[in-house]
Each structure stands twice: as C-alpha cells, then as structure tokens.
Design brief:
It is a single chain. By secondary structure, this protein is mainly α. The protein has helices at 25-30, 41-50, 62-70, and strands at 20-22, 34-36. The protein has a two-stranded parallel ribbon with strand order 1-2. The longest helix has 10 residues, at 41-50.
C-alpha cells in the first residue's frame, strides 16, 4: 500500500472472486472487481443473489452496521472489540441506535 493509501494491483488481496460494490461510477469503470450500484443495500443483496452468492461477510464501521440494522438485512453479528483507538467516527451501537442481543434488534 502506498503512503496515499493506494493498493498495488499486484498485492494479491483481490482475486476473481472478489466484488467491491461502489456508488462511485469512475472507480467501478477502473477496477475490474468493482460493481456500480445505487447505494441501496437491498439492491446490492439482490445482485449477490442473482450471482448465486448466499453468504456475505460485511466489514465496516458504525455507519455500515447501522445501515444493515435499520434495513433489517442481517442474520448474525460477530463483533470484535479492542482497546486500540484507530481514529474518530460514530459509535456502532450507542444509545441513539438500535440495541441488539443474539438474534433481535430493537
């Protein structure tokens, strides 16, 4: 990875099974693994289903977690927490957002 955050094409991180969904059409045109979509999680999941993909690992921060919770598009969360602080952002499950137990959010 470069100082500017660019990932070398030869990094081996992405292969022909990797899909990157993006609302950035320029990025989608430049990166073979990128799929342009409208930003709606439902349409992303519909596209994955049409590709025969039935399982999805989502890695992200609080905003992405809240989006899946708000749209009720989740089956299971595995949350890993550390004491390390990597920067600032929004909380994933604070008082203002949904609260969850092992199978229900309210």
């Amino acid at each position: 990875m470069s100082i500017g955050g660019a990932l070398a094409k030869s990094s081996g991180l992405f292969d022909d099974r990797t899909l990157i969904y993006t609302t950035n059409s320029t990025f989608a045109q430049q990166v073979p693994q990128a799929v342009s979509f409208d930003g709606e999680l439902g349409s992303l999941l519909d596209d994955l289903g049409q590709r025969g993909i039935q399982s999805l690992l989502v890695e992200g921060g609080g905003a992405l977690v809240r989006a899946f919770l708000a749209a009720n598009l989740w089956q299971r969360f595995d949350i890993y927490q550390t004491d390390a602080v990597l920067g600032t952002g929004i909380k994933g499950g604070g008082q203002s957002g949904p609260r969850c137990n092992t199978d229900t959010c309210w």
